[in-house]
Design a protein that fits this description.
homodimer; alpha/beta; Rossmann fold; 2 domains; 12 strands; elongated; DNA-binding
Chain lengths: 342, 342
DNA sequence: TTTCAGGGTGGAAACGCTTTCTTGCAAAAT
DNA sequence: ATTTTGCAAGAAAGCGTTTCCACCCTGAAA
C-alpha cells in the first residue's frame, strides 16, 4: 500500500516512448508528433501522473510554481484576483502557491529568505504596505517579483486608480439632490497590514466634490471595519445626522450591502431616499441593483501574472507600472424615478 | 555576476571530507566526530553555503512539507491554530504549505487529485464540512490526513467540544439575575463552507439552560455574520426587546467585542447592566476584561500536527479522535459588583 | 539513384542532494 | 597475539526531472 507516485519512467513505459519524449510533452516542446503526444498524455492521465516540481527545479532550474502573497481580508476581491492570475498561469502550466498574511508574525516569516515563498520561480505580491517594510524596499530574493494592487518603483506593478474612482463617484453622486455621505474602510492599526485603499477612494471623492463646489463634512464620513454590518451602522449613523435623501458613496460593495440591508429594515427606498454607490463591481451587485465602480480585478491579476512570466523568461527591462481605471456602472440604486432639471 | 551557489561538493572539498559527511552534518546525524563536524561547519560558513531545498526533497523522497487546508474566515482562530501547528512542525524541519479556501470553486481545485496540495507528505484539514463532500468521505490521496477542529471516523482528528462549551456558558450565566441572550454565528449559505460551530455552541447553551430550568426564546438568539459590528447590532436588538440587565452569550470573542463597543456607546455598564461571555479566549480578552470560554487552540493544532507526523513516519493504527475541552475564564464582564444570594 | 537536411525520438549525463554499502581503524574481547 | 566489535567516513547508487547528443527516419534536392 501507500503506492508511490508514478514517475516519468512509468509514463514512458506505458506510452512506449523514451523519457525524453515524455519530458518534451510536459514542456510543450514542438518537435513531438501529435500522435505520440496524445499517447503520452493518455498514459499520464491513466496513471494519474503529475510531475514532481522539486525534481523539475533541480534538473531544469524551474519548478513551474509561483508564490502569491496576499492578505486575507476582503475575500471576494482576492478571490477574483486569484481567478485572473490563475487564468494566465494555468495556460502556461504554472501552479500557484498561496501565502496568505494572517498576522504580522506570519508576514515576517514570509519575508525571511528561507521561507517557502522564495523557493518558487517568482513572487506575486498583493499587499499595499508590504514593500515599504523591507530593507532597501527589496524582497530577499534574486527571483522576479511583481506587485499587484500595489505600487513601487522597484518592481513591476499592476494596480487600480482608487483616487480616480473616488472622483468618479463624486461626479456621479453630486448630480443628485440631497446631502452627500461616504463610508470609509478602517485602516488596519498595524503598520504591517496597512492598507490605504479606503483612504484613497474617499480622498478622491472629497476632492471630486470640491471640484464641483460641494464639500464633504468630516461628520459625513463613517469609518467602519470591512463588513456588511459596518454599512448598516453607517446608515443608522447618517439617519441620526440628517433627513433623506441620502447620497452615499460606500468604499466597497460589501459596505454597500449593509446599507441596502439596513435601508430595507428602515423602510427607506433605494434610489429614492437612499442613493447608493458601491466600489468593486462584484457580480452580486447586478442582482441587487447596486450601482458601483467596477474594478477590472481579473484583468489586473492577469496582467500581473503576464509580467511575472515575462520576467521569469528573462525579460530585463526597468520596472513597469500598469494602471487600471474603474468603470462606473449605473443601476437602480442611483437611478431614481423622479425627474428633475438636467 | 550571479555566481552559482556553492554545492555540497565544494564544501566537502574545502573541509577535506566526502560529501556523505557533509550531508550527515546537515542532517544532524550522530556519527560524525565533533572535530570533523566543526571543520565542515566552518567550510560551510566560509563559502556561505546553504543546502538546496529542492535537491533535498528529491533525494530524500520526502517534501518536508505538509499541506494545511483551511477556510479564510475567523482569522484570529486560524492564526493561533497555525501557530500551534508550526511550533511542532518546525522542530522537525517541516514546512507548511497553506491552502486557504477562498471559494467553493477553489476548494474543488484543492480536492482534485493533481493539486499541489497532494504533492506534500501529508494533509492537515481544518474545515468542518469538508470530509462530507468527498466521494467515500476520503481525500484522493495515499498520504496521511489528519483533521483539526473537525471530526470524522475516517481520519485522525483533534477538535474542541463546542457543545460542552455552550453548556458551560449556560451554567455560568444562568446564575445571574436578568434575561438571557445568545449571539450565534451565521452559517454559511454554501454547503461547501458549512460550519456548524456556531450552532453547536448555542445548542449547548440552550440545553444547558434547560437543565437548570431556564429557557432561551428564539427571539433572544441574534444570528449575525462573523464581525464585531454584528455584535453591536445584536445588542441594539436586545435593547429593543427588553430592559437591562442583559446576560449575553456571544458565540465568539469577536462578536463579544462588538457588544462591548455598543454597550460603551449606549452607556451600559459591563458587568452590571450587560454581562457578557465570549468564546475563544483570544489574548485581547484579558485587557478588555471579557469573560470567555477559552479554547486550547494551539494545543489542538500541535496535537494534530503530532498525529500527522506519526502517520508520515509510518504509524498504521486506526483513526484516533482527540477531544479538547474549553475552560471558563471569568473576568469583570461577568463579575458584577452587586451582591446577591448565592 | 544518391546525398542531404532536418524533424522525431531514445537514452545518457547532469542537477544537488540523501542513503546505503563498504572500508579503515582503534579499542575491546578472546 | 588474534579476533571481534563498532564507530567514522568515503564511495557510489539513487531520487525524478531536463537537456543534450546521437541516431533513425523520411522526403526533397542533386
Amino acid at each position: 500500500m501507500a503506492k508511490r507516485k508514478p514517475t516519468i519512467h512509468e509514463v514512458a513505459h506505458l506510452a512506449k516512448v523514451g523519457i525524453g519524449t515524455v519530458s518534451r510533452v510536459l514542456n510543450n516542446h514542438p518537435s513531438v508528433r501529435t500522435e505520440t503526444r496524445e499517447r503520452v498524455l493518455a498514459a499520464m492521465s491513466s496513471l494519474g501522473y503529475s510531475p514532481n516540481p522539486h525534481a523539475r527545479r533541480v534538473a531544469g532550474g524551474r519548478s513551474y510554481t509561483i508564490s502569491l502573497i496576499l492578505p486575507v481580508i476582503s475575500t471576494e476581491f482576492y478571490n477574483r484576483l486569484l481567478e485572473g492570475i490563475e487564468q494566465v498561469l494555468s495556460e502556461e502550466r504554472y501552479e500557484i502557491a498561496l501565502f496568505p498574511i494572517f498576522s504580522p508574525l506570519r508576514l515576517q516569516r514570509y519575508l525571511e529568505s528561507r521561507s517557502l515563498a522564495y523557493q518558487t520561480d517568482g513572487l506575486l505580491v498583493a499587499s499595499q504596505g508590504l514593500a515599504h517594510l523591507l530593507p532597501n524596499q527589496r524582497f530577499p530574493t534574486e527571483r522576479p517579483v511583481v506587485l499587484v494592487d500595489a505600487h513601487s518603483p522597484r518592481y513591476d506593478s499592476a494596480f487600480v486608480d482608487n483616487y480616480l474612482g473616488g472622483q468618479m463617484a463624486a461626479q456621479h453622486l453630486a448630480a443628485f439632490p440631497g446631502e452627500l455621505f461616504a463610508i470609509q474602510m478602517q485602516e488596519e492599526l498595524d503598520e504591517v497590514m496597512r492598507n490605504t485603499v479606503g483612504q484613497e477612494r474617499v480622498a478622491g471623492f472629497r476632492d471630486g466634490l470640491a471640484r464641483v463646489g460641494r464639500s464633504l463634512p468630516d461628520a459625513h464620513i463613517f469609518v467602519s471595519r470591512f463588513s456588511a454590518e459596518g454599512g448598516r451602522l453607517a446608515l443608522q449613523h447618517f439617519m441620526r445626522l440628517s433627513r433623506p435623501p441620502y447620497n452615499i458613496f460606500a468604499g466597497a460593495d460589501l459596505l454597500a450591502l449593509g446599507v441596502l440591508e439596513e435601508a430595507e429594515r428602515q423602510g427607506l427606498e433605494i434610489g429614492e431616499q437612499v442613493r447608493l454607490l458601491g466600489f468593486d463591481g462584484h457580480t452580486w451587485t447586478e442582482a441587487r441593483g447596486l450601482s458601483t465602480l467596477s474594478q477590472p480585478i481579473e484583468e489586473m491579476g492577469a496582467e500581473a501574472a503576464r509580467m511575472l512570466l515575462e520576467r521569469i523568461r528573462g525579460y530585463k527591462g526597468s520596472p513597469r507600472a500598469r494602471r487600471f481605471e474603474p468603470t462606473l456602472v449605473v443601476r437602480s440604486s442611483t437611478q431614481d424615478h423622479t425627474v428633475y432639471a438636467d
